[in-house]
Amino acid sequence: MSDRYQGFTASPIGKLLVKNLGLPSPMKLERYVEGAPLVDGTVAVGGRGRLAESLPGLLDLLGIASTTQPDTGDGTTYKGLVFDATAITSSDQLHALRDFFTPLLRSLDTCPRVVVIGTPPEQVSGAERVAQRALEGFTRSLGKEIGRGGTVQLVHVADGAEAAVTSTLAFLLSPKSAYVSGQVVRVGAHGTREAAEVNDWQRPLGGKIALVTGASRGIGAEVARVLHRDGATVVGVDVPQAADGLVRLMKELNGDWLTLDITAKDAPQRIAHHLQEKHGGVDIVVHNAGITRDKKLANMKEEGWDSVIAVNLTAPEKITRELLDQGVINHNGSIVGVASIAGIAGNVGQTNYAASKAGVIGFVDSLADELKDGITVNAVAPGFIITAMTAAVPFATREVGQRLNAMAQGGLPVDVAETIAWYANPGSTAVNGNVVRVCGQMMLGA
């Protein structure tokens, strides 16, 4: 489904109306193309914190050109900015943010990436905690100012996890994070503070087995494609009614498939047995399958409530528990849940759906400190993603939904898939307990 309004704003009359009436003017976002460099340009690096000396080397490892002495006077443009704010220990030192960013913001290229690195506020106290908490307001606001398809993120790096940020920088500085902005990512906050070795940054999932539920179409199909692109063997799961599409896609990706209803009593055991017998275990588990049965609560039938909770929340819980109890998830494995903005901000007529998706966030919270052997659990929370499902939404509602974010447009299934692939990257083993919104920094919901 194309964005007709975005096409209109690119036309001569559209440009005129946007300029004179102050209408939203969505920039065409840059998205990653397989084989392309992660960053097509130079990243300016600043700050004097715990990561200041190592950042240029980490970026060089990723093939990203960087400079610690940016020049704003010769017409040079920058594709990204990274500022290490971990040395800020009091509110009067926050001026360092203005000192670094203000001269450089007008030198940014289109679709730029901005990353601020801080210390988790809960791990410090007093004036330092105050100052580090202030970084969140700064980055969220800058995300709504930056324009031109740009994104801004805050990365909280725990003490001792400085070397574990490489995969996160690769994601947040590249077009892979095109529709992720205004987010707070925590590295080393739960469990391990070291990253597993990545042998090939172009195909970091080489040799990995990935389970994706609801894989036959929409977001699930794109997740399967991106994980396959990154080297994984994908095992797709979907209901028997979707078998034709599932088999066709898995054959295209040289993957494997399993048709079943994930809410069936024996589904967790069947999935665990299949993964163990055919693949010797699993490295990546993506709980993507989901349904909606929208009604206002006063009109909601029992089946409409129970089916949504069962598919979206209870089944992922039971499947995960079975895989963990049987030891099917391999060392440094990754579990990813698909939540939703609805679970954060709520939606009219979606008390069942919003409850299930908020429950996915609770699922992450409950498991993050329990998991052993380097296994991580994280979630994505999509906003308005352009799919066949959203194409059926009434035009006026759809237009409002697409425009109420800092990028004034809907996202694509690949935006969700790229975020999941970042979680699944072996270099992300210190990224645990996160819920990242893929919503273009929606104006509603934290």
Description:
The chain is an alpha/beta fold and 446 residues long. 37% of the residues lie in helices and 18% in strands. It has helices at 4-9, 12-21, 55-61, 95-101, 126-145, 166-172, 218-229, 243-252, 267-279, 302-325, 342-345, 351-368, 388-391, 395-403, 413-424; strands at 42-47, 65-67, 78-84, 108-118, 151-157, 183-187, 209-213, 233-238, 256-259, 282-287, 329-338, 376-382, 435-438. The strands form two sheets. It has a seven-stranded parallel sheet with strand order 9-8-7-10-11-12-13, with helices on both faces. Strands 2-1-3-4-5-6 form a six-stranded parallel sheet, with helices on both faces. Helix 10 runs parallel beside helix 12 (351-368). The radius of gyration is 22 Å and the shape is globular. The model has no long low-confidence stretch (mean pLDDT 93).
Task: Please sum up the structure shown.
The chain is of the alpha/beta class.
How many whole angstroms does the radius of gyration measure? 22 Å
Q: Indicate the mean pLDDT.
A: 93
Question: DSSP helix count?
Answer: 15
Strand content: 15-25%
Distance between the termini: 28 Å
Instruction: Give helix % range.
Output: 25-40%
Q: What letter string, H or E per element, gives the SSE order?
A: HHEHEEHEHEHEEHEHEHEHEHHEHHHE
Layout of secondary structure:
Elements: H1 4-9, H2 12-21, E1 42-47, H3 55-61, E2 65-67, E3 78-84, H4 95-101, E4 108-118, H5 126-145, E5 151-157, H6 166-172, E6 183-187, E7 209-213, H7 218-229, E8 233-238, H8 243-252, E9 256-259, H9 267-279, E10 282-287, H10 302-325, E11 329-338, H11 342-345, H12 351-368, E12 376-382, H13 388-391, H14 395-403, H15 413-424, E13 435-438
Parallel strand pairs: 1-2, 1-3, 3-4, 4-5, 5-6, 7-8, 7-10, 8-9, 10-11, 11-12, 12-13
